[in-house]
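User: structure tokens for this one?
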Amino acid sequence: MNKEDMIPDKPSAHFAKQQYRQQEQFFASCDDAVTGYRGQAVRLMPENWAANLHPDYRQRIVDSFSYSDEHTQSIGWHTHVNHGASSQVCCVNFLFPFVDRPDVLGRWIDHVLGIDGAQPEVIERRNGEDHYVAFEWFPETDYLNEAGKDGKRNRGSNSTSVDAAVRYRIGGELHLLLIEWKYTESYPSKRDPRSMSGDATRKSRYHNIWQRPHGPIRADVDVRLEDFFLEPWYQLLRQQMTAYHAETDPLSEYDRVALLHISPKENSALKRARGELSRFGDEVFEAFGSMIDPAFRDRFISLDTSTAFACLERWSDVEWAQWLRVRYPILTSDRTNQIPVELR
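Assistant:
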């Protein structure tokens, strides 16, 4: 994510309010949750923000994100990390238990991708530990021309990253799966005029890397780069460019790089296509997928959160599933009981 991605989005009124109430009730049941920041029961007091994290993993998560050395950046928390409906916190609560459980992670990768035999590999070391999941991940190579004058990018802010990433081997190939996570977010139908001041920079960075033959978007589709500058199109494009260039770079170690977008199907406002690109479809993720070149179309996957994670409750060795069910019941209840046919 970059700084723009960290600005809280206007919530989908019905779904967001429902989830806010759910989180208020959850906090009320917790002895260690001190709420009331800015008069809101859904917000923890800033000094108590870590109560937002799974209690069995809380200290490891805090230590992992704060860790840094000469080769490893610390990971930034988003501004609203103390909010009960923080999508970053939600993502970490679901995925952090996988960091040292490659056995369960492999089964989950098989589940969400409809494959068989994924073998996760260590993606980074943090605080002296091998991690099979990386958070706020971006590639070492600055594919999107986003580094500052000093040649550096900050992990989790002011440059394109994904909420999480995992690497795995299958069929003799090394694959990378980028994961973007949404919860209660939705986006306005028009851009904030203040954001338009950065359009010249955006065009200079991306003008020759977004469309085939040098990017993921079809060459025969009638779109301009600036049509993507409205969210969530803008984030989708940057992350798909990251996946495309991380795979097609001749020096890349990866044979395949895909972007998995996870969000609740109940969040209809998030999925509603807006802006110039809405002519490609009513559902934003379907419309975005239709603009990707056919040779790379299957590198973009959108899944409902409950479809992606209801499997955890069927696995007896996933001890953290019960806490997730209590904390996020709508995100763990499988209403389809199957992966979409197109992903099998």
